[in-house]
Amino acid sequence: MRLLRSGQQRGRTTAPGLDGRSAFSSGDLHDPAWMGFGVLRACHEYRVAVGGRAPPPARANMEILTFVLDGTLRDAHGDLHAPGVAWAGAGAGTELDGCLAAGDRTLHVLQAWIQPAHVNLPPVAARIAGTTTGDGWQLVAAPDGAGGALPVRQQAWAWRGRVADGAALVFEMRVDRRYWMQVVGGALQCGAERLQAGDALACYGEAGALCVQAGSAAGGDVLLFDLPG
Questions:
Q1: Which of 135, 151, 155, 224 is 20 to 30 A off residue 84, Cα-Cα?
Q2: CB neighbours of 222 closer than 8 A, spacing ≥ 6?
Q3: Which residues pair with 75 in a beta bridge?
Q4: Got the DSSP string for 65-95?
Q5: 59 to 56, 91, 150, 201: CA distances (angstroms)
Q6: 3-class DSSP state for residue 108?
Q7: At the top level of CATH, which class does the domain 2-228 belong to?
Q8: Where are the chain's structural domains?
Q9: Which CA distances in Å does 6 have to 10, 193, 203?
Q10: Residue 98: which residues within 8 A CB-CB, separation 6 or more?
Q11: Cα(200)–Cα(214) distance, rounded to whole angstroms?
Q12: What does the angle CA 164 – CA 214 – CA 2 come to, to the nearest 5 degrees?
């Protein structure tokens, strides 16, 4: 089964210096059909003006991945420039910063919240300074922190991919897993579906190749979450 979640269907949160979009029910948005996708409980995209701040994320029992798509994120651990990724395992509960825009340009982030395999774990945090801008998949988060990935505490993997014009990315799906593919830049073609930045494709109960091709001469950027079924 494949379900398209259009970027235009997302909920919107605005405040001075902030424009936020949420794929699932959050805040003033209540959509019974989209309360989450398996253990993926939130998928927020924020644009934060210089000096502004996005709201702080959940403070307990959530694995929070923040992908810096453009600009610079500033928190208690310092500045993180695009295309870096920050991970906070809130565990039993911890004080977490919101997304503060530093420097002289708008901060653009994608934040994913994943339920951990066990509750009330110790709070932890880590980050990777940059993800690849070359073509292909790069592993960003994994249960064991393999290959320098961020060690999320769930049987979940996060990948980032860049698809150049005329190229394709292929990911082998398993029927017992769920997959959430979020387009964060450009345009992509996946089978009959043409996806723009902000769109997502949810897949479950399928096995075989998920093939992603560039949908424009500029190519596209995508995040792929491999989740328990």
A1: 155
A2: 160, 161, 162, 163, 169, 181, 182, 183, 184, 188, 212
A3: 78
A4: EEEEEESEEEETTEEEETT-EEEEE-TT---
A5: 8, 8, 19, 28
A6: strand
A7: mainly beta
A8: 2-228
A9: 7, 11, 14
A10: 53, 54, 55, 56, 57
A11: 15
A12: 135
Place of tokens 């491999």: 226
- Per DSSP (E only), the strands in the chain are 2-5, 11-15, 18-22, 40-48, 63-70, 72-75, 78-81, 85-89, 100-102, 107-114, 124-128, 136-141, 157-163, 168-173, 177-190, 193-196, 200-204, 208-214, 220-228
Q: What is the pLDDT of residues 154-185, one digit of tens each?
A: 999 999 999 988 889 999 999 999 999 999 99
Omega before 16 cis (within 30°)? no
Contact 20, 46 (CB under 8 A): yes
For residue 182, count CB atoms less than 10 angstroms from its CB and return exposed for 0-12, middle for 13-18, buried for 19 or more. Answer: buried
Contacts of 62 (CB under 8 A, 6+ apart): 41, 90, 113, 114, 115, 116
For 1, other C-beta atoms within 10 Å of its C-beta total 8
Residue with tokens 């292909």: 136
Q: Which of 42, 47, 44, 45 is nearest to 19 (CA)?
A: 47
For residue range 79-129, what is the model confidence (pLDDT) as tens digits?
Answer: 999 999 999 998 887 767 778 898 889 999 999 999 999 999 999 999 998
